[in-house]
Amino acid sequence: MQNLTRRALLGTAAAAPLATPAILAAQTQINITIAASHPTTIAWIWAMQQALMPAVNQALESTRFRIRWREAFGGTLYRFTETRNAVKDGITDVGFVGTLWEGSAMPLQNVTYFTPFATDNLRLQVDVMEKMTAEMPEMQKAWTDNNMVYLGTCGTETYDLWTTFPVRTVDDLRNRKISAPGVSATWLGGTGAVPVNGALTTYYTDIQTGVSDGTMSFPSGIFPVRVHEVAKYITKVNIGCMYVGGIGMNRQTFNRLDPVVQAAFRTGGKAYTAALTNRVLATSEANMREMVAKGAELSTLPAAERQRWVDGLPDIAGDWARTNEGRGQPAKKVLAAYMDGLRAGGATPGRAWTA
To answer: Which Pfam families match (predicted)?
Structure first.
């Protein structure tokens, strides 16, 4: 009933007659719910509030349209496992969609998670994924098939380890429980570690209670949720930058909007992508330094051990491509486009995943 009421409010703009200059000059208010499963202390949610929303508002300043925002961040509407369905089903109008948790429904968006150790250049990775999403119908189809309009890209800096024990060799991970959300569990193949599902919102409690012994993550995500307090050993591994997901808008909501407002939301999506990338790059090293200042112990996995990890991985990308090709998904084409895009941008992947 709440959704029907909110959607009815969205439609009031179209119902008003535009017969006189006075009415034409009147503002038209549009009610929009914007939500996320994570709090605004996390960079990719911060950018929704501090970049996307202001950019939409600014784009509409010289028009008769105004957005009345209803903010529902921090999981107040849905959990991290429900981000796709929340936008798809109209629980929220605009939301962060974590495609890393959607290996079945949105498999092509997870290509970066099946090509670890490919690049630590976040700007390059974001640019490649933005271009692929814009130019490849196969990438857009996952969003449209799930009743969403794609607005912006969320990428993270390179992944490292946060553990309750020191990691000096790959062997130190054997039989250890490591929190690894969704498809990132595949990165532990060959290490002997046991993956435990979770998210930034669960890591602290999982590690504190012994559900896991650490996690693979990134500074801009780990620092705000204070995981370094319960997993003080930080080991730089440079597993690579990843495409975590994006900002989606419910297609029915989008289609009901005036083209001027639709354009404003697309502008907001571009502002989100730029602001998030800048935020992550600006805060990542600072976050790492602050964690060390607060008692974390920082080390770097020796290059030979890192290569052992890379070489010991199963054919993650090949298995992913073959499985999804069997399901009618053009995974090989997407995999080749991604790796070619990285190389064209100057990256030297740690493993030839398309071989």
So the answer is: DctP
Q: Compute the average pLDDT of residues 64-80.
A: 95
In angstroms, the CA 119 to CA 349 distance is 6
Q: What is the pLDDT of residues 131-143, one digit of tens each?
A: 999 999 999 999 9
- 160-241+284-320+332-344 adopts what CATH topology? D-Maltodextrin-Binding Protein; domain 2 (3.40.190)
Amino acid at 280: V
Cα separation, 44 vs 154, whole angstroms: 6
Q: What is the pLDDT of residue 6?
A: 43
The C-alpha atoms of residue 181 and residue 160 are separated, in whole angstroms, by 14
pLDDT tens for 154-184 read 999 999 999 999 999 999 999 999 999 777 8
Q: What is the token pair recorded at 183? A: 């498809």
Tell me how far the alpha carbon of residue 18 is from its chain's centroid: 41
Assign a CATH topology to domain 2-108+121-155+243-282: D-Maltodextrin-Binding Protein; domain 2 (3.40.190)
Task: Measure the CA–CA gap between 124 and 354, rounded to whole angstroms.
Answer: 19
DSSP class of residue 153? Answer: E
Q: Is the separation of the CB atoms in 296 and 232 below 8 Å?
A: yes
Q: Map out the domains of the chain as residue ranges.
A: 2-108+121-155+243-282, 160-241+284-320+332-344
Nearest-CA neighbor of 42 among 245, 210, 207, 209?
Answer: 245
What single-letter amino acid sits at 28? T
